[in-house]
Amino acid sequence: MKNLFLPIRFGLITGASLISYFLVLSLFDIHNNPVYSLLNAPITLLGVYEVIKISKSRFSETFTYAEGFKFGVITGAVATILFTAFFLLYSTEINPGYLPALFENMHWGIKSHVGILVFVVAIMGFSTSVVSSLTVMQLFKTSNNYVESA
After folding, report:
1. Exposed / middle / buried, residue 28 (Cβ in 10 Å: 0-12, 13-18, 19+)
2. pTM of the model
3. Residues 51, 71: contact at Cβ < 8 Å?
4. Residue 148 pLDDT exceeds 90
5. What whole-number distance in Å separates Cα of residue 48 and Cα of residue 14?
6. Angle, in degrees to the nearest 10, between helices 65-89 and 114-140
7. pLDDT of residue 142
8. What is the mean pLDDT of residues 9-28?
9. N or C: which end of the chain has fewer CB within 10 A?
């Protein structure tokens, strides 16, 4: 449990960063455009990178690929849960007019429900966490290549 403190802490920081980014977009009234959600991936990637970098330096003797991947996924999952809960609260309670404007910009052509959109936000967050963890672990994995002497 002591080892999980670091990814949970960075997950909370990453989730707060995602929420802050969303609120900054809402200040300029451009949060209705789904294109701006593309920057959620680099924010998540940065949080995953930091937790893996710090965990490798702290636990260098026991650090494995699986351990780093686990830390990255936990960080992303905590951030995703936090942001999804905020998104649900924002779209239903804080700004009830947000969803109709978002659906109008998305041009789905069908009636949609807040539950489907929250599910999509969660799935996108979890998949971004897995891909970010796999990507970052390519930088921090130990190489099994042998160097031939000349």
Report:
1. exposed
2. 0.87
3. yes
4. no
5. 8
6. 150
7. 75
8. 94
9. C
Structure tokens at 60: 């260098």
Q: Which residue from 127, 149, 4, 7 is spatially nearest to 78, judged by alpha carbons? A: 7
N-term to C-term CA, the chain:
47
Say if CB 59 and CB 108 are below 8 A apart. Answer: no
Q: Evaluate whether 74 touches 47 at the Cβ level (below 8 Å).
A: no
CA angle 54–55–58, rounded 5-degree value: 85
Q: Measuring CA to CA, which residue among 87, 76, 68 is closest to residue 130? A: 76
Per-residue confidence (pLDDT) for residue 107, from 0 to 100: 67
Q: Is 84 exposed, middle or buried (0-12, 13-18, 19+ CB in 10 A)?
A: buried
What does DSSP assign to residue 29?
Answer: T
Average pLDDT over residues 133-144: 86
Mean model confidence pLDDT for the chain: 88
The C-alpha atoms of residue 43 and residue 4 are separated, in whole angstroms, by 20
User: What does the alpha-carbon distance between residue 65 and residue 56 come to, in Å, rounded to a whole number?
Assistant: 10
Determine the length of the chain. Answer: 150
